[in-house]
Write a structure and sequence with these properties.
Layout: H1 19-26, E1 32-34, H2 35-41, E2 58-63, E3 90-97, E4 107-111, H3 117-125, H4 134-147, H5 154-163, H6 179-199, H7 206-217, H8 222-231, H9 238-270, H10 286-324, H11 328-335, H12 337-363, H13 372-386, H14 392-395
Antiparallel strand pairs: 1-2, 2-3, 3-4
Helix pairs in contact: 1-13, 6-7, 6-9, 7-8, 9-10, 9-12, 10-11, 10-12, 10-13, 12-13
Length: 396
């Protein structure tokens, strides 16, 4: 798919990017993974992919769902027949720039689940599903692993690679020192009371409890079987359930850190600072822009409501189990958590990208205010980010 097929001469002034290309080029690590840039900057170790053309791409995530889970859509997990949804409401795509040194000048996007993906992968990156070489099989399996995640957060990528026992050059994950241990510690502290309650373990039986907590990270170890039995989880669903459980806990940890930053964006949009400094010159268009701003603000608030509802459901089921000893609601949340994990992944990611757009735009403003055109551009890019149904095909 042609994104923006422009001449690759270096522009004399900054070009305005389409919302999707802005997201690809400037999105946070959870949204976009610039394999080309990381390959170029790595100081040692093997490149991420064995097929050279794949080391010149940018991988990105894009939403593709219609369901809203906020407000009246709250779920009663008590005495509910639970079934696992394997829907993945976030798309994974490869962006292949016309010139990898000038990615903002346009290129092609291949969505891994689109109808003609096989033909496009062969055309643009040289992966042919017929007659695959060992390098192609290995790289294609990497793409499938990445496609099985709702976002590109380094922690989730590393966890997925470890689960599949795949080695990855640390230069591509960009994790800060101590970040992985801190996240795992937060998740362990959340999991520990559940393990103790589910298995009747004494709080002082540290080593026994730890083995079961380790099972969350590796469902193949013997202790995992007892935990699975305790919650009556189908063995075929274990990998998805455990991944979703860790994922929900990870996003809850991440959201608590980012919540004050998102609150600042919302306050700004509601304040007088969001009025364009050149509003007198655009008086005729101000009502239209104000209406658009309110629509964008409503979408941001809905994304927040989605996140809060999922965490509220999770905490309610968790508390019911820990305090009341009733495992049914928590078990049903686990069994149905895969789809919510994906929704949560993109909602959290969308808010991080919203903050990213906000900071970039205000850095080009004047004392915390924007001109009319700057505000329009910011609202357009945020609108694309917080819209749940992908409009990518229309934009390309």
């Amino acid at each position: 798919m042609l994104l923006q097929d422009q001449k690759t001469e270096k522009p004399q002034k900054k070009r305005k990017l389409s919302p999707i290309l802005d997201q690809i080029i400037y999105g946070p690590p959870s949204v976009t993974w610039n394999i080309h840039e990381l390959t170029r900057k790595r100081e040692s170790g093997d490149p991420f992919f064995q097929i050279p053309s794949l080391n010149r791409i940018i991988i990105f995530k894009y939403p593709n769902f219609k369901v809203e889970v906020s407000d009246a859509a709250a779920t009663n997990f008590t005495n509910k027949d639970a079934s696992l949804s394997d829907d993945r409401p976030v798309e994974t795509a490869l962006y292949i720039p016309n010139d990898e040194e000038l990615p903002h000048e346009g290129g092609y996007a291949v969505y891994l689940r689109q109808k003609d993906a096989e033909k496009l992968l062969q055309r643009y990156v040289g992966i042919s599903l017929d007659g695959m070489t060992d390098a192609m099989k290995r790289d294609f399996s990497f793409l499938q692993m990445i496609d099985d995640l709702p976002s590109l957060d380094p922690f989730l990528l590393k966890t997925a690679f470890e689960r599949h026992k795949v080695a990855c050059n640390p230069a591509y994950l960009m994790m800060k020192d101590g970040e992985e241990d801190k996240i795992k510690s937060v998740i362990r502290n959340k999991v520990r009371p559940i393990v103790n309650k589910a298995l009747g373990a004494d709080v002082n039986e540290t080593s026994k409890t730890q083995r079961f907590i380790d099972a969350i990270w590796d469902p193949t170890i013997p202790e995992a079987a007892l935990f699975i039995q305790a919650f009556k989880i189908d063995s075929k669903e274990v990998a998805n359930v455990f991944s979703a459980w860790k994922g929900v806990s990870f996003y809850q940890y991440q959201f608590e850190i980012n919540k004050p930053l998102i609150a600042e964006v919302i306050r700004w949009l509601k304040s007088e600072n969001s009025k364009p400094i050149d509003h007198r010159e655009h008086r005729a268009f101000l009502p239209q822009q104000e209406m658009f701003k309110q629509q964008v603000l409503k979408k941001i608030m809905n994304v927040l409501a989605n996140i809060n509802q999922i965490f509220k459901d999770f905490d309610t089921c968790y508390t019911k189990f820990i305090n009341d000893g009733d495992p049914i609601a928590f078990r049903n949340f686990l069994i149905t958590s895969h789809y919510r994990y994906w929704l949560l992944g993109y909602c959290c990611t969308a808010l991080m990208h919203t903050r990213n757009i906000f900071e970039r735009c205000l850095s080009e403003g004047t004392r915390g205010t924007l001109r009319f055109e700057q505000l329009n551009d910011m609202l357009t890019n945020i609108d694309s980010t917080v819209s749940s149904k992908s409009q990518g095909a229309k934009d390309l």
